[in-house]
Specification:
mainly alpha; MetI-like_sf; about 550 residues; 2 strands; Binding-protein-dependent transport systems inner membrane component; MetI-like fold; two-stranded parallel ribbon; 2 domains; transmembrane helix; transport; membrane
Length: about 550
């Protein structure tokens, strides 16, 4: 019975997978088209600079995020001090803050006309920039610092989990052999956490490669800004596709290097629950240093930007609280809701096929569908536009052949393109959540249900679906938040006259008027806090 279902639904699974990887193939086909004019000019002039800036940015952000995250992860996982219980989840809050908003806040603070330099000039009597030196934040280094502040929680979360799951017997052995906490960290915990650190660094590197808004605001030319400018500035889709193919090469190279670095690593350790007595108790001086570091990092990455944002929202509340704000909120919420529902439905179908099929080949559709998460928003926008434009033309040609009025840009001129792009990019999140939930369902339940005469369809409805509710909700929540925050694809694929909260805030940031878009930005941040709170509660339950 299950084999019959797998064979009948296998084509459905492959059809869904092909649809979701279609933008990638369309992008590669478009990039293969000849274009010597624009791309040849870019190749001989500025393209080496774009590539170098992108690689340097990825390198510095990866190093910066790793250096910021490691001390926090070790302190929260292995040390006991005042405030640790609250700081261990508070350090995840920077993930809710869009990087381009943090970039604007710090530019406003540290620019020549900002309060920091004004105070320095008033204090020391300086009258011009020639009288003193102050680093320019609108540089590659400034962009690396901002992105490191926003992205370090990826590494922090994985590293903290890895440190907490390490065998306590090894930690006890290191203590018996006279190792100090620092020696235990450097010789034992850090090498054993390398797989988790490699995954975290790879995630940070991919997010950096995909960033558009921050580098665009800082006027740092990278491959993502080059795609945007080539498409909208030159109007050349083929050259933009070629640049996108280079970004894909960088992203998939990062994934390949991460897997290659871990190919022979095998760690076998007996896990046990960490008790309070197993933690290193810090002295008063060490406690002050630990609190000072963690609180300073939290203030710089979240508290200060959100505080300034909140003050802007209060000062300009009357100007922002208008029908436009409500329309933007409805646009964002409806778009994110539709995307999350579609992604969860697709994830449920693909993972059910993978669950019930006895053939290993039927696991391929879910893996193919997950590749879209590696596509940056600017790259994905081009990949979506190419096939949807051809489909729009085909629909209108058929209408003309039937002597009917064509619908016009039915797909590319509506939010359908945005929903499709968001689904391609974020369905991997829903698949991962459903897959994790499926691993907790014993296969014996399937066998018992079939023995009792339940059809595979009823098996899904009566057994799997109730047990997958938590995983589906978590996946839908994460997809919803990511859809609310997604900017590059929304900027490039939005129909004329359509705005959501993310594009609205970005326009104000680009015009140096974030205070007018502070209220929508606060909404994005607050919505982004929801999955972090949910994630923290799940981690606390798992650790009990």
């Amino acid at each position: 019975m299950i084999l019959g279902l797998a064979r009948s639904w296998s084509l459905t699974g492959y059809a869904i997978a092909v649809l979701l990887v279609l933008p990638l193939f369309a992008l590669l086909l478009q990039a293969a088209q000849p274009d010597e004019a624009v791309f040849g000019h870019l190749l001989s002039t500025v393209l080496p600079t774009y590539i170098a800036n992108s690689l340097w940015l990825i390198l510095w952000v990866s190093i910066g995020s790793l250096l910021l995250a490691l001390p926090c992860a070790w302190l929260m996982a292995r040390c006991e001090f005042i405030g640790r219980r609250y700081l261990q989840w508070a350090l995840l809050l920077p993930l809710a803050m869009p990087a381009y908003i943090v970039a604007y806040v710090y530019t406003d603070l540290f620019d020549y006309a900002g309060p920091v330099q004004r105070s320095l000039r008033a204090l020391f009597g300086w009258s011009s920039p020639q009288d003193y030196f102050f680093p320019d934040i609108r540089t590659l280094g400034g962009a690396a610092c901002v992105l490191s502040l926003v992205l370090f929680p990826y590494i922090y979360l994985l590293a903290r989990t890895a440190f907490m799951e390490q065998s306590l017997s090894l930690a006890h052995a290191s203590r018996i052999m006279g190792c100090s906490p620092w020696q235990s960290f450097w010789r034992l915990s850090l090498p054993m956490a390398r797989p988790a650190l490699a995954v975290g660094v790879a995630l940070v590197a991919m997010e950096t490669a995909a960033d558009f808004a921050t580098v665009n605001y800082f006027a740092v030319p990278t491959l993502t800004t080059a795609v945007y400018d080539t498409w909208l500035g030159y109007g050349n889709l083929t050259a933009a596709a070629k640049l996108s193919a280079i970004i894909l090469l960088v992203v998939f190279s990062l994934i390949g290097m991460e897997r290659f670095a871990r190919r022979k690593q095998q760690l076998f350790q007996k896990q046990s629950r960490i008790q309070a007595s197993d933690l290193y108790r810090l002295s008063p001086v060490q406690t002050l240093l630990a609190l000072g570091y963690c609180i300073t990092l939290l203030v710089l990455a979240f508290v200060l930007p959100s505080g300034i944002l909140l003050s802007y929202a209060i000062d300009y509340f009357e100007q922002s609280w208008d029908p436009i704000f409500w329309q933007l909120s409805v646009n964002s919420l409806s778009l994110a809701l539709i995307t999350s529902l579609v992604c969860c439905a697709v994830a449920l179908i693909l993972m059910f096929i993978r669950r019930v099929s006895p053939r290993s080949s039927d696991a391929l559709p879910s893996r193919l569908a997950s590749t879209g998460y590696a596509l940056p928003g600017t790259v994905l926008a081009i990949g979506v536009l190419v096939p949807l434009t051809l489909l729009d033309f085909a629909i209108n040609d058929i209408a003309d052949w039937l002597r009917m009025t064509g619908p016009g840009l039915l797909l590319t001129g509506s939010t359908a393109a945005l929903v499709f792009a968001f689904c391609v990019r974020f369905v991997a999140i829903a698949i991962g959540s459903v897959e994790t939930s499926y691993k907790r369902i014993s296969p014996s339940l399937d066998m018992v249900s079939l023995t009792l005469g339940q059809s595979p369809r009823r098996l899904l409805q009566r057994v799997h679906l109730p047990l997958l509710t938590k995983g589906l909700f978590a996946g839908a929540l994460l997809v919803f938040i990511e859809s609310m925050k997604e900017l590059p694809a929304a900027l490039l694929l939005r129909p004329i006259g359509f705005e959501n909260l993310a594009t609205h805030v970005f326009q104000f940031v680009s015009d140096e008027k974030l205070e007018h878009g502070a209220l929508p930005a606060i909404v994005i941040v607050l919505v982004g806090l929801v999955p972090l709170i949910y994630l923290n509660r799940s981690l606390e339950q798992d650790s009990r």
